[in-house]
Each structure stands twice: as structure tokens, then as C-alpha cells.
Amino acid sequence: MITGSIVALVTPMLRENLEVDWDRLKRLVEWHIEQGTHAIVAVGTTGESPTLDVQEHMATIAAIVEDAAGRIPVIAGTGANSTREAIEWTQRAQQAGADACLLVTPYYNKPTQQGLYLHHKAIAEAVDIPQILYNVPGRTACDMLPETVIRLADIPNIVGIKEATGDLGRARQLIENCPSDFAIYSGDDATALELILMGGHGDISVTANVAPQLMSEMCRLALAGQAEEARAINQVLLPLHKHLFVESNPIPVKWAVAEMGLMEHAIRLPLTDLSAEHHETVLTALKQAGVLNGN
């Protein structure tokens, strides 16, 4: 089971043409390994999956797998609102060497709970790779209810869920009713600590893009049941958990990573650079966490 701080990695781009910046991507992977990040999600929402074409999407997954070189697990984002497409992307991620895949609920077409069950069941049966469900109704307009997750947890290669509602009551329901080897990950940095302390297994994190060492240590302590020590670190991180969402993710976090000198300021339309009115707010959060300029 993959546990701990799992960074939902940004995809660095070149400002001049918005192509993927392969050199800085490699450096980011190396930096996360050095800083203690426990696993990487490649090309999730934070990695701008909606605006990468299929070739770029798969090339980015393959590059991260190659750069990680087995030192930490790589989880490939392969979800789609077409079941056939999700199967194809998951197959290609498996061929690229990903350790697992993260599959968001089908967005926009709004399936029923039975449709969600059959969608994920079909992908699991078609591709023999560990698969993590991803529920984020605030983005998808599709909410996979706990009862559906519990049904899917019985499928052997569906191994966990990224539950991004921030609803700790729902998280507790999943922890209490899913098999013990089914991983419950937070997808909401602000409530991740409490989810882990109640029996969850980690955090698929935006904040880890800028504070990987702190997030890694917080998750390690929480998983070890050292609540007081973990809460002390989380207190330092709270401004980041809040202010990295002053505009739609990944706008603020990409701006913050660039301000730290780890990549260029570059993001693809329809997303735009962070509005000037929020610059000082995000900079202050970075300084309060002691991570600006990588310090």
C-alpha cells in the first residue's frame, strides 16, 4: 500500500511557447525525492490534465516514471468521462511503468451510482494495475457515494480512493466499512491531517508541491499516531492549505512553485496566471511556512 505524502505534481511549462518543460520536470521529481515525498501523482488535475493532449499526457507519465526510477511510486492520472478512453489511458500508463493509476469520476455526463460502479469495474477488469478512485464532485458534478465506493472496494485491483470532499464524516464511513487493505487518501489538504489520524492512509496533496518536506513529516507523524507533533507542523502549513486555493487549482500553486525558482511562470488557457491581488497573500503563506526559494 502507498501511504504518506503523495504530491499531485504540477506540470512545468516553458513560458515562451507553453510546451512541457522536460528539464524542470526532471528536476522537480528529483527535488521531491530528496525532500521525502512518498509518491507522485503524474498528470492529475494539478498537472493540468485537461489541457495536455494525449501524446503529452502519456509522455509526461513516462518521463516521471523514468525520472523516479523506482525510488518512489508513480501514480498516473488516467481518468476520463469515456470508459473506453479511460481503459486505453490506463493501459498506456501501465505500459509506461506506472505503479498505479488514479481515476477521477466521469465528469459532465453525470452517471448514476450504478453507472459509476460499472465504469470503474470495467476499467479494473480490463487493466491489471492497482487503481485508485478519485471523488471530487466540486469539479466533476459527479459524487460517488460511500455505498458505491464500498462496493468497488471488493474488486481486487481497486485499491483505494482519493476522497476530496473534505467531509470527515464520509471519510470515517469509508474507513470503517472498506477492507483494511483499501487505502483512504485525503484529497483536501486542509482536512488531511484529521483524516489520517482517524485511520486514513495519506494525502494526495497540492501543498506538497511547495512544502514537500513538511508535508512528508506531517504525514509520517500522523500515520505513527503522533498527533500533537503532526498538528504542530500542520499549523505552519494551514496558510498554504488555504491560500493555494484563492483561485482555481493549479493557478496559485503553479505561481508559487515558479516564485520558488523551480520552474517558469507558465500555465495554459483557459487558466491564467495568478491575479496580482493575490500575489502578496500567497507569498506570505510561503514565507510563513519557511519554504520560499526552497529554504
Summary tags:
TIM Barrel; 46% helix; 8-stranded parallel barrel; 12 helices; globular; single chain; 295 residues; alpha/beta
Explain what the structure shows:
This protein is an alpha/beta fold and 295 residues long. The protein has a single domain (4-225), classed as TIM Barrel (Alpha-Beta Barrel), CATH 3.20.20.70. Helices cover 46% and strands 13% of the residues. An 8-stranded parallel barrel has the order 1-2-3-4-5-6-7-8, surrounded by 7 helices. α1 (22-35) links the parallel β1 and β2. α1 (22-35) crosses α2 (54-68) and α8 (189-197) runs antiparallel to α10. The protein is globular and about 45 Å long. It starts with a strand and ends in a 6-residue tail after the last helix.
How many independent structural domains?
1
Kindly state the number of beta strands: 8
Low-confidence stretches: none
**CATH class category:** Alpha Beta
Categorize the overall geometry: globular
- Which CATH architecture? Alpha-Beta Barrel
Give the DSSP E fraction (strand runs of 2 or more residues). Answer: 5-15%
Taking the alpha carbons of the first and last residues, their distance comes to: 31 Å
Largest sheet: 8 strands, parallel, barrel
CATH topology label: TIM Barrel
- Give the spatial strand order of the biggest sheet: 1-2-3-4-5-6-7-8
Q: How do the SSEs run, as a string of H and E?
A: EHEHEHEHEHHEHEHEHHHH
**CATH homologous superfamily designation:** Aldolase class I
Rg calculated over all Cα atoms: 18 Å
What is the count of DSSP helices, taking H or I runs of 4+ residues? Answer: 12
| Helix coverage percent | 40-55%
Mean pLDDT: 97
How does the helix and strand content classify structurally? alpha/beta
Catalytic activity: L-aspartate 4-semialdehyde + pyruvate = (2S,4S)-4-hydroxy-2,3,4,5-tetrahydrodipicolinate + H2O + H(+)
Subunit structure: Homotetramer; dimer of dimers.
Protein name: 4-hydroxy-tetrahydrodipicolinate synthase
GO cellular component, one term: cytosol
